[in-house]
Design goal:
By secondary structure, the chain is an alpha+beta fold. The chain folds into 2 domains: 86 residues; 234 residues, Endonuclease/exonuclease/phosphatase (Deoxyribonuclease I, Chain A, 4-Layer Sandwich), CATH 3.60.10. It is 33% helix and 19% strand. It contains 9 helices and 13 strands. The strands form 2 sheets. Strands 5-6-7-8-11-10-9 form a 7-stranded mixed β-sheet. Strands 3-4-2-1-13-12 form a 6-stranded mixed β-sheet. Strand 1, helix 5 and strand 2 form a beta-alpha-beta unit. Helix 1 runs parallel beside helix 4 and helix 3 packs antiparallel against helix 4. The longest helix has 23 residues. The protein is elongated. The termini are far apart. The mean pLDDT is 93. Keywords: Endonuclease, Exonuclease, Hydrolase, Membrane, Nuclease, Transmembrane, Transmembrane helix. It holds the Pfam family Exo_endo_phos. One of its GO terms (molecular function) is exonuclease activity. InterPro entries: Endo/exonu/phosph_ase_sf, Endo/exonuclease/phosphatase.
């Protein structure tokens, strides 16, 4: 007669330790380790991590069934499955919505991969989205000028500017395109760039209009963690203004914003457009991964003066040569009487 499996001490201990480990991995910001090396990279790819945990859970479960006992293998299967489902739950809560609708302002961001995406492709993106503001990390002044020329021939008038990294930083510039209908903008040279990679701040000459920030902090690599963290704090400082819009490749997900604002999807005083629109689970990098598994590290952030109408990740440009997908957000200005400076 077959014996009934019994719960062993090793099973109970492994379940307990596994549950603790799963909780930390699921929500590392809860214990303040979300911006540490390795952890920062892992939580950027929650979809991949959830899939990996699910595969390991199946393997551990198969071993437990083969052994016919509630031991370490069974406990690991339970803990791994719980961790996988937890990450899936976070992604579902953040949402997969991707839509565009009308608004006062359309903001686009696309890391062009140092010329990987051609000026013609960037111009096509601007035309198709009817963008008013375009943040272009890894795009030099020559490419930005060529985009402006293509758009002008299509009857679209925009201005461009480019910022280089501080001395000692990377040689990859960041450009911005601003529609003429927004008036004349000039870069605020009193504000230094993010360390390592360039970011800039542009303000309306006549003072009427939002402050625009094209941002590209360093990635969270072992040798650049300090610069990356400083770059995120630089963005939080820019978001002290209410009438500000930040767009770019932030090399961070909303998980990394924790501790830099009042809640997870807030950095400084800015809200994440993807989170506001229910689309913060849609990944933008790298394009070789499906949207469900890629890291959502490209963002549009808005101050209190702006309301998010829609947000979309655009996989239709996956074959354009960049390793990032472009994003587009439509925004509407809030009633000035309701905005706290």
């Amino acid at each position: 007669m077959p014996t009934r499996p019994r719960l062993s001490f090793s099973f109970l201990a492994t379940v307990l330790l596994g549950a603790l480990a799963a909780g930390v991995v699921l929500w590392p910001q809860g214990v303040g380790i979300h911006r540490l090396p390795f952890v920062a990279n892992v939580i950027s790819l929650r979809g991949i991590f959830a899939l990996g945990l699910a595969v390991l859970a199946v393997i551990a479960g198969a071993i437990a069934v083969r052994r016919r006992r509630w031991g370490v293998s069974a406990a690991l299967a339970i803990a791994l499955a719980a961790g996988s489902l937890g990450h899936v739950g976070v992604l579902i809560a953040r949402g997969w919505s991707s839509s565009t609708s009308g608004g006062d302002l359309t903001v686009v961001s696309w890391n062009a991969y140092g010329g990987g995406a051609s000026p013609a492709d960037i111009a096509r993106l601007v035309r198709e989205t009817r963008a008013d503001v375009v943040s272009l990390p890894e795009t030099d002044a020559f490419a930005a000028a060529e985009v402006i020329g293509i758009l002008r021939r299509a009857g679209i008038e925009m201005r461009h500017d480019t910022v280089a990294a501080a001395p000692g930083g990377e040689t990859i510039p960041t450009s911005i395109l601003i529609s003429n209908r927004l008036g004349t903008y000039t870069r605020d040279a009193s504000i230094p760039s993010t360390p390592g990679l360039p970011s800039g701040v542009w303000r309306p000459v006549d003072g009427d209009g939002p402050t625009l920030v094209a941002a590209h902090p360093m990635p969270p690599l072992p040798e650049t963690m300090a610069e990356w963290d400083e770059g995120l704090r630089w963005i939080a400082a820019r978001c002290a203004e209410s009438d500000v819009i930040v767009a770019g490749d932030l090399n961070a997900t909303v998980d990394h914003f924790a501790g830099l604002g009042s809640r997870e999807d807030v950095i400084g005083g800015c809200r994440d457009a993807a989170s506001e629109a229910g689309g913060a689970a849609r990944g933008t990098w790298p394009v070789r991964l499906p949207v469900a598994f890629a890291a959502p590290i490209d963002h549009v952030l808005v101050g209190a003066a702006w309301r998010v109408e829609s947000f979309a990740v655009l996989p239709g440009f996956d074959d354009a040569g960049s390793d990032h997908r472009p994003i587009v957000a439509t925004l509407t200005r809030e009633d000035r009487a309701t905005v706290t400076p």
